[in-house]
Amino acid sequence: MNRAAESPAKDLLLQLSDVTVSHGDRSTLESVSMRLSRREIVTVIGPNGAGKSTLIKTALGIIQPAKGEVNRIANIQIGYVPQSVSLDPTLPLTVERFLRLGTAVNDATVKEMLATVGVEKLQTASMHRISGGEMRRVLLARALLKKPDLLILDEPTAGVDIAGQNDIYTLIGSIRDQYQCGILLVSHDLHIVMAATDRVLCLNRHLCCSGSPEHVREHPEYLAIFGGNPADRIGIYRHQHDHHHDLHGDVCDHG
Protein backbone atom coordinates (compact mmCIF):
# COMPACT_ATOMS: atom_id res chain seq x y z
CA MET A 1 0.00 0.00 0.00
CA ASN A 2 1.38 3.43 -0.88
CA ARG A 3 2.11 5.76 1.97
CA ALA A 4 -0.10 8.87 2.10
CA ALA A 5 1.67 12.11 1.35
CA GLU A 6 1.78 14.74 4.08
CA SER A 7 -1.71 16.22 4.15
CA PRO A 8 -2.17 19.99 4.22
CA ALA A 9 -3.76 21.60 7.28
CA LYS A 10 -7.09 21.98 5.48
CA ASP A 11 -7.37 18.16 5.36
CA LEU A 12 -6.97 17.75 9.12
CA LEU A 13 -9.93 15.79 10.55
CA LEU A 14 -9.00 15.11 14.16
CA GLN A 15 -6.45 16.48 16.61
CA LEU A 16 -5.75 15.53 20.23
CA SER A 17 -3.50 17.95 22.11
CA ASP A 18 -1.87 16.87 25.41
CA VAL A 19 -4.90 14.76 26.31
CA THR A 20 -5.03 13.14 29.74
CA VAL A 21 -7.88 10.82 30.75
CA SER A 22 -8.25 9.70 34.36
CA HIS A 23 -10.35 7.17 36.24
CA GLY A 24 -10.20 8.08 39.89
CA ASP A 25 -6.55 8.66 40.77
CA ARG A 26 -5.30 6.58 37.84
CA SER A 27 -4.50 7.99 34.40
CA THR A 28 -5.36 5.79 31.43
CA LEU A 29 -3.94 8.33 28.97
CA GLU A 30 -1.18 10.77 29.85
CA SER A 31 -0.50 13.87 27.72
CA VAL A 32 -1.23 12.15 24.40
CA SER A 33 -1.14 14.23 21.23
CA MET A 34 -2.02 13.01 17.74
CA ARG A 35 -3.49 14.23 14.49
CA LEU A 36 -5.22 12.47 11.62
CA SER A 37 -5.92 13.82 8.16
CA ARG A 38 -8.15 12.87 5.27
CA ARG A 39 -6.81 9.98 3.15
CA GLU A 40 -4.53 8.85 5.97
CA ILE A 41 -4.52 5.51 7.82
CA VAL A 42 -3.20 5.76 11.38
CA THR A 43 -2.80 2.62 13.48
CA VAL A 44 -2.64 2.59 17.28
CA ILE A 45 -0.71 -0.30 18.80
CA GLY A 46 0.17 -1.18 22.37
CA PRO A 47 -0.06 -3.87 25.04
CA ASN A 48 -3.24 -4.72 26.95
CA GLY A 49 -4.15 -1.87 29.28
CA ALA A 50 -2.23 0.67 27.19
CA GLY A 51 -5.29 2.93 26.75
CA LYS A 52 -6.11 2.09 23.14
CA SER A 53 -9.86 1.78 23.75
CA THR A 54 -9.79 4.94 25.86
CA LEU A 55 -8.13 6.78 22.98
CA ILE A 56 -10.85 5.64 20.57
CA LYS A 57 -13.65 6.66 22.96
CA THR A 58 -12.00 10.03 23.45
CA ALA A 59 -11.74 10.54 19.69
CA LEU A 60 -15.42 9.61 19.35
CA GLY A 61 -16.41 12.05 22.11
CA ILE A 62 -17.71 9.31 24.42
CA ILE A 63 -15.05 10.16 27.01
CA GLN A 64 -14.12 13.73 27.91
CA PRO A 65 -10.47 14.31 28.84
CA ALA A 66 -9.48 15.61 32.26
CA LYS A 67 -6.83 17.76 30.56
CA GLY A 68 -6.03 18.74 27.00
CA GLU A 69 -8.18 19.35 23.94
CA VAL A 70 -9.91 17.26 21.27
CA ASN A 71 -10.69 19.07 18.03
CA ARG A 72 -12.67 17.67 15.11
CA ILE A 73 -13.67 19.42 11.90
CA ALA A 74 -17.15 20.98 11.96
CA ASN A 75 -20.00 18.62 11.07
CA ILE A 76 -17.66 15.65 10.86
CA GLN A 77 -19.26 12.32 9.97
CA ILE A 78 -17.70 9.41 11.88
CA GLY A 79 -18.20 5.73 11.17
CA TYR A 80 -17.30 3.32 13.96
CA VAL A 81 -16.69 -0.43 13.91
CA PRO A 82 -16.50 -1.97 17.41
CA GLN A 83 -14.39 -5.00 18.20
CA SER A 84 -17.53 -7.10 18.65
CA VAL A 85 -21.32 -6.86 18.72
CA SER A 86 -23.79 -8.79 20.82
CA LEU A 87 -27.00 -9.86 19.08
CA ASP A 88 -30.02 -11.47 20.71
CA PRO A 89 -29.98 -15.02 19.32
CA THR A 90 -33.78 -15.21 19.53
CA LEU A 91 -34.28 -12.12 17.35
CA PRO A 92 -34.66 -12.84 13.61
CA LEU A 93 -32.34 -10.36 11.93
CA THR A 94 -31.16 -10.28 8.33
CA VAL A 95 -28.03 -8.45 7.22
CA GLU A 96 -30.15 -5.83 5.46
CA ARG A 97 -32.29 -5.27 8.55
CA PHE A 98 -29.15 -4.94 10.69
CA LEU A 99 -27.79 -2.26 8.38
CA ARG A 100 -31.05 -0.32 8.60
CA LEU A 101 -31.32 -0.37 12.42
CA GLY A 102 -31.45 3.22 13.65
CA THR A 103 -30.70 4.65 10.22
CA ALA A 104 -32.70 6.02 7.30
CA VAL A 105 -30.98 4.70 4.19
CA ASN A 106 -32.39 3.74 0.82
CA ASP A 107 -32.09 0.40 -0.95
CA ALA A 108 -29.41 1.68 -3.32
CA THR A 109 -27.13 2.73 -0.45
CA VAL A 110 -27.53 -0.61 1.32
CA LYS A 111 -26.61 -2.47 -1.86
CA GLU A 112 -23.71 -0.11 -2.61
CA MET A 113 -22.11 -0.62 0.80
CA LEU A 114 -22.53 -4.39 0.77
CA ALA A 115 -20.91 -4.45 -2.68
CA THR A 116 -18.10 -2.17 -1.47
CA VAL A 117 -17.13 -4.67 1.22
CA GLY A 118 -17.70 -7.71 -1.02
CA VAL A 119 -20.73 -9.30 0.66
CA GLU A 120 -23.62 -8.23 -1.58
CA LYS A 121 -24.84 -11.83 -1.68
CA LEU A 122 -25.49 -11.73 2.07
CA GLN A 123 -28.22 -9.08 1.93
CA THR A 124 -31.00 -11.50 2.98
CA ALA A 125 -28.80 -13.81 5.09
CA SER A 126 -29.33 -14.20 8.83
CA MET A 127 -26.88 -12.26 11.00
CA HIS A 128 -26.69 -15.32 13.23
CA ARG A 129 -25.42 -17.57 10.43
CA ILE A 130 -22.64 -15.54 8.85
CA SER A 131 -18.97 -16.24 9.54
CA GLY A 132 -16.57 -14.12 11.55
CA GLY A 133 -14.98 -12.70 8.41
CA GLU A 134 -18.39 -11.91 6.93
CA MET A 135 -19.41 -10.21 10.19
CA ARG A 136 -16.37 -7.89 10.03
CA ARG A 137 -17.35 -6.88 6.50
CA VAL A 138 -20.99 -6.29 7.43
CA LEU A 139 -19.89 -4.08 10.33
CA LEU A 140 -17.71 -2.14 7.91
CA ALA A 141 -20.67 -1.74 5.53
CA ARG A 142 -22.79 -0.33 8.35
CA ALA A 143 -20.06 2.14 9.33
CA LEU A 144 -19.90 3.35 5.72
CA LEU A 145 -23.61 4.04 5.29
CA LYS A 146 -23.22 7.79 5.86
CA LYS A 147 -19.97 7.92 3.87
CA PRO A 148 -17.94 9.15 6.84
CA ASP A 149 -15.07 11.61 6.84
CA LEU A 150 -13.43 9.54 9.57
CA LEU A 151 -13.64 5.77 10.02
CA ILE A 152 -12.66 4.40 13.45
CA LEU A 153 -11.99 0.65 13.63
CA ASP A 154 -11.36 -1.27 16.85
CA GLU A 155 -9.49 -4.52 16.06
CA PRO A 156 -11.07 -4.78 12.58
CA THR A 157 -9.81 -8.33 12.03
CA ALA A 158 -10.83 -9.82 15.38
CA GLY A 159 -11.74 -13.49 14.89
CA VAL A 160 -10.34 -13.65 11.33
CA ASP A 161 -7.45 -15.91 10.31
CA ILE A 162 -4.16 -14.49 9.00
CA ALA A 163 -5.02 -14.81 5.28
CA GLY A 164 -8.42 -13.23 5.87
CA GLN A 165 -6.80 -10.46 7.92
CA ASN A 166 -4.65 -9.45 4.98
CA ASP A 167 -7.74 -9.24 2.77
CA ILE A 168 -9.53 -7.07 5.34
CA TYR A 169 -6.60 -4.65 5.50
CA THR A 170 -6.47 -4.51 1.70
CA LEU A 171 -10.19 -3.69 1.75
CA ILE A 172 -9.60 -0.94 4.33
CA GLY A 173 -7.02 0.63 2.03
CA SER A 174 -9.47 0.49 -0.88
CA ILE A 175 -12.16 2.16 1.26
CA ARG A 176 -9.74 4.96 2.12
CA ASP A 177 -9.01 5.51 -1.57
CA GLN A 178 -12.65 5.23 -2.71
CA TYR A 179 -14.24 7.46 -0.06
CA GLN A 180 -11.26 9.76 0.61
CA CYS A 181 -11.73 9.33 4.35
CA GLY A 182 -9.28 9.22 7.22
CA ILE A 183 -8.99 5.95 9.13
CA LEU A 184 -8.00 5.42 12.75
CA LEU A 185 -7.62 1.78 13.69
CA VAL A 186 -6.51 -0.17 16.73
CA SER A 187 -4.58 -3.41 16.38
CA HIS A 188 -2.42 -5.67 18.48
CA ASP A 189 -1.06 -7.60 15.49
CA LEU A 190 1.88 -5.76 13.93
CA HIS A 191 2.84 -8.61 11.65
CA ILE A 192 0.25 -7.61 9.07
CA VAL A 193 -1.01 -4.18 9.97
CA MET A 194 2.35 -2.46 9.66
CA ALA A 195 2.27 -3.15 5.93
CA ALA A 196 -1.20 -1.62 5.65
CA THR A 197 -0.88 1.73 7.41
CA ASP A 198 0.66 5.14 6.80
CA ARG A 199 1.56 6.01 10.37
CA VAL A 200 1.82 4.07 13.63
CA LEU A 201 1.29 5.34 17.18
CA CYS A 202 2.80 3.11 19.87
CA LEU A 203 0.83 3.68 23.05
CA ASN A 204 1.43 2.60 26.63
CA ARG A 205 -0.75 5.15 28.47
CA HIS A 206 1.62 7.76 27.04
CA LEU A 207 2.78 8.01 23.45
CA CYS A 208 5.96 5.93 23.35
CA CYS A 209 6.83 6.61 19.72
CA SER A 210 5.18 7.41 16.41
CA GLY A 211 5.99 7.62 12.74
CA SER A 212 6.17 5.35 9.72
CA PRO A 213 5.95 1.58 10.35
CA GLU A 214 9.61 1.29 9.41
CA HIS A 215 10.59 3.95 11.95
CA VAL A 216 8.48 2.57 14.79
CA ARG A 217 9.72 -1.01 14.46
CA GLU A 218 13.28 0.27 14.97
CA HIS A 219 12.42 2.37 18.02
CA PRO A 220 13.84 1.24 21.40
CA GLU A 221 10.54 1.82 23.25
CA TYR A 222 8.65 -0.33 20.75
CA LEU A 223 11.26 -3.07 21.13
CA ALA A 224 11.07 -2.81 24.92
CA ILE A 225 7.29 -3.26 24.90
CA PHE A 226 7.01 -6.07 22.35
CA GLY A 227 10.26 -7.89 23.07
CA GLY A 228 13.05 -9.17 20.91
CA ASN A 229 16.23 -7.45 19.88
CA PRO A 230 16.95 -5.42 16.73
CA ALA A 231 18.39 -8.47 14.97
CA ASP A 232 15.37 -10.66 15.75
CA ARG A 233 12.27 -8.45 15.57
CA ILE A 234 9.02 -8.83 13.67
CA GLY A 235 9.27 -7.92 10.02
CA ILE A 236 6.62 -6.42 7.80
CA TYR A 237 4.42 -9.16 6.39
CA ARG A 238 3.46 -8.76 2.74
CA HIS A 239 1.01 -11.38 1.52
CA GLN A 240 1.67 -12.41 -2.07
CA HIS A 241 -1.59 -13.13 -3.88
CA ASP A 242 -1.18 -15.85 -6.45
CA HIS A 243 -4.58 -17.07 -5.27
CA HIS A 244 -7.63 -15.60 -3.56
CA HIS A 245 -9.70 -16.30 -0.47
CA ASP A 246 -13.38 -16.69 0.20
CA LEU A 247 -15.07 -14.76 3.00
CA HIS A 248 -14.01 -17.43 5.48
CA GLY A 249 -10.37 -16.91 4.55
CA ASP A 250 -10.04 -20.25 2.78
CA VAL A 251 -7.97 -20.46 -0.39
CA CYS A 252 -10.04 -20.85 -3.56
CA ASP A 253 -9.12 -21.75 -7.10
CA HIS A 254 -9.20 -18.88 -9.60
CA GLY A 255 -11.76 -20.76 -11.60
Secondary-structure map:
Layout: E1 12-23, E2 26-37, E3 41-45, H1 52-60, E4 67-72, E5 78-81, H2 95-100, H3 107-116, H4 132-143, E6 150-154, H5 162-179, E7 182-186, H6 190-193, E8 199-204, E9 206-211, H7 213-216, H8 220-226, E10 244-245, E11 251-252
Parallel strand pairs: 3-7, 3-8, 5-6, 6-7
Antiparallel strand pairs: 1-2, 1-4, 8-9, 10-11
Helix pairs in contact: 3-4
- Fraction of residues in H or I helices: 25-40%
List unreliable stretches of 5+ residues: 1-7, 229-255
**What is the tally of beta strands?**
11
Name the average pLDDT: 84
CATH architecture of the largest domain: 3-Layer(aba) Sandwich
Measured between the Cα atoms of the first and last residue, the distance is 27 Å
* The CATH H-level homologous superfamily of the largest domain: P-loop containing nucleotide triphosphate hydrolases
Query: Domains counted in the coordinates: how many?
Result: 2
Based on CA inertia axes, which overall geometry fits? globular
Biggest β-sheet description: 6 strands, mixed
Radius of gyration: 19 Å
Sketch the topology as an H/E string, one letter per element: EEEHEEHHHEHEHEEHHEE
Class from helix and strand fractions: alpha/beta
Strand ordering within the main sheet: 5-6-7-3-8-9
Report strand %: 25-35%
Number of helical segments? 8
Named CATH topology of the largest domain: Rossmann fold
The first-level CATH class of the largest domain is given as: Alpha Beta
Short description:
With 255 residues, this protein is of the alpha/beta class. The chain has helices at 52-60, 95-100, 107-116, 132-143, 162-179, 190-193, 213-216, 220-226, and strands at residues 12-23, 26-37, 41-45, 67-72, 78-81, 150-154, 182-186, 199-204, 206-211, 244-245, 251-252.
